[in-house]
Amino acid sequence: MKKTLFLLYGVVAYVTFLLTFLYAIGFVDNLLVPKSIDGTPQVPLLQAILTNAALLMLFAVQHSGMARPAFKRWWTKYVPEPIERSTYVMFSNVVMACMMIFWQPMGGVVWSIETEWIQVTLIALSLLGFMTVVASTFMLNHFDLFGLRQVWLNFRGKPYTHLSFNTPFLYKYVRHPLYFGFLIAFWSTPLMTITHLLFAVATTGYILVAIRFEENDLIKHFGEKYVQYRRQVAMIIPFLKKPESAVVPAMAKDQVEA
C-alpha cells in the first residue's frame, strides 16, 4: 500500500510540475495566461521591488538549498528516500506558483521592438530556450530528475541506483545546457520592461552562483572525471571556453584525490 501511495505521490508531483512549467512559459513570454510578468503596476514601485526581490530570493534559497547533499541527508531522516526527489519537486512547484501569483509588475520600458518579424523571432527564440531546458533533462534522465524513477523502482521493489557520469549531445559542448536554455528564454523578448529586466538579471545572477555550488557537489560525487570535464567544456555558453582553474575546490579536494 505504501509503495502505491509513494508512486501516486510522485506522479502528482510530476504532473503538477508540468502544469506549473507550462504556465511559467506563458508567464515569462506574456502568452495565453491571465497573469504574466508584465502588466499594469498595482502597488508603489518600492513595494513592488521588495516583493519581487523576496519572491526571487525565496525561489533561490529553496531551489538550491534543498538540492544540497547535506540538506538531503538531514531531510531524509523525516522524508522517505523514495519520495525525497518528488517532495523537492513539489516544494519547487509551490514556490514557483507563489512567485507567479504574487509577482508585481513595475512598468517602464527598456526596449520595445516594433518590427513584427523581429518580435516573432525573439518569442520563438525564447520558446526554443524553454525547449532546450526540457531537452537537456531528457539527455540525462528526465524521470530521475523529477523523482518518477525513484518511486517507480520503489514500487517494483528494486533498489535505487545513482546515474553514471556521461555527456550526451549538448553536454559535449556546454556543461549546463539547461541553464543556457533558461538564459535564452529569459532574455529573448521583444518588450523588455523594468519588471522583466529585474527578473532576467536576478535569475542570471542566481544561475551563475548556483552553478558553483552544483559543480562542487559534482566534483565530490564524480571526482576526477568531472574535474577533467570541467577543464575541457564551456560552463554555460557553448564554444565560449575560458580555461578553468586547475585548482580543485577545497571542499572537494579530498574526494577527487581519493
Secondary-structure topology with pairs:
Layout: H1 2-29, H2 45-65, H3 69-75, H4 84-102, E1 109-112, H5 116-140, H6 142-145, H7 148-155, H8 177-187, E2 191-193, H9 194-222, H10 224-232, H11 253-257
Antiparallel strand pairs: 1-2
Helix pairs in contact: 1-4, 1-7, 2-4, 2-9, 5-8, 8-9, 9-10
Characterization of the model:
The chain has 11 helices and 2 strands. By secondary structure, it is an all-alpha fold. Strands 1-2 form a two-stranded antiparallel ribbon. Helix 2 (45-65) packs antiparallel against helix 4 and helix 9 crosses helix 10. The longest helix has 29 residues, at 194-222.
Counting DSSP E segments of at least 2 residues, the number of strands comes to 2
Domain count: the total is: 1
> Which structural class do you get from the secondary structure elements?
mainly alpha
Average per-residue pLDDT, rounded, comes to 91
The helix content, as a percent range, equals: 55-70%
**Rough shape?**
globular
| Helix run count | 11
Radius of gyration, in Å, reads 20 Å
Q: Please provide the ordered H/E string of secondary-structure elements.
A: HHHHEHHHHEHHH
The biggest beta sheet reads:
2 strands, antiparallel
Distance between the termini: 42 Å
Strand content: under 5%
Q: What's the oligomerization state? A: single chain
Read across the widest sheet, the strand sequence of neighbours is 1-2
Runs in which pLDDT lies below 50 for 5 or more consecutive residues are 245-258
